[in-house]
């Protein structure tokens, strides 16, 4: 009797844990999708900004971008999904 009750209790705990795991996996997937979309939008915005700069304006900002962009691209590369 005691063994059967313990097995039922453990089965219920396992089921609850599996349900919680599925919920957390869904939240994680939702976060990753939103994060990737955010990065993609930011990259497109930066690309649009760069296209708008004239050659002379680019010269003013080239030093800043030449330092910042390689670091940003290295940091963000694992998270970017190309469309």
Question: Would you kindly provide a brief summary of this structure?
Answer:
Helix content is 88%, strand content 0%.
Supply the key terms.
single chain; mainly alpha; 2 helices
How is this structure best described in words?
The structure is a single chain. The protein is an all-alpha fold. It has one domain. 88% of the residues lie in helices and 0% in strands. The radius of gyration is 24 Å and the shape is rod-shaped. The model has no long low-confidence stretch (mean pLDDT 76).
Class per helix and strand makeup: mainly alpha
Indicate the percent of residues in helices.
over 70%
Poorly predicted ranges? none
Q: Please state the CA-atom Rg, rounded to the nearest Å.
A: 24 Å
Task: Give the overall average pLDDT.
Answer: 76
Inertia-based shape = rod-shaped
Major sheet description: none
Please count the helical segments.
2
| Domain tally | 1
Number of strands: 0
Strand content of the residues, in percent? under 5%
Distance between the termini: 59 Å
Reading the helices and strands in chain order gives HH
SSE layout and pairing:
Layout: H1 2-52, H2 55-76
């Amino acid at each position: 009797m005691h063994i059967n009750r313990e097995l039922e209790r453990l089965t219920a705990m396992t089921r609850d844990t599996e349900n919680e795991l599925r919920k957390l996996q869904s939240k994680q997937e939702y976060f990753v999708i939103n994060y990737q979309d955010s990065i993609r939008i930011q990259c497109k915005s930066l690309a649009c900004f760069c296209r708008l700069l004239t050659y002379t304006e680019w010269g003013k900002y080239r030093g800043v971008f030449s330092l910042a962009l390689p670091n940003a691209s290295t940091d963000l590369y694992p998270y970017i999904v190309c469309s």
